[in-house]
Amino acid sequence: MKQRLLPTFTLLLTAVLSLAILLPASASDRELPIYSVDTAQKVCAISFDAAWADGWVR
């Protein structure tokens, strides 16, 4: 009985941990802005969020 219990427990634990790792990563479809990019050049970029209060306007 112990010989069958250990592989079953190991397989179940592996499945649960895999789901715990994969689900949060796949549940997020939200795109995030790029705040910085590594470059050798000294450059500056300015942007404006024209839809800043879009969520508050009806």
Strand content: under 5%
SS elements, strand count: 0
> What is the end-to-end distance?
65 Å
Structural class based on helices, strands and sheet pairing:
mainly alpha
Rg calculated over all Cα atoms? 24 Å
Q: How many helices does DSSP assign?
A: 1
Main beta sheet strand tally, sense and closure? none
* Quaternary structure annotation: single chain
- Overall body shape: elongated
The ordered string of helix (H) and strand (E) elements is H
How much helical structure, as a percent, in the residues?
40-55%
Mean pLDDT: 75
> Low-confidence spans: pLDDT under 50, at least 5 residues?
none
Topology at a glance:
Layout (H helix, E strand, L loop, with lengths): L1 H26 L31
Features:
58 residues, mainly alpha, 1 helix, elongated
In short:
By secondary structure, the chain is mostly helical. The protein is 45% helix and 0% strand.
Descriptive account of the structure:
With 58 residues, this protein is mainly alpha-helical. Helices cover 45% and strands 0% of the residues. It has one helix at 2-27. The chain starts with a helix and ends in a 31-residue tail after the last helix.
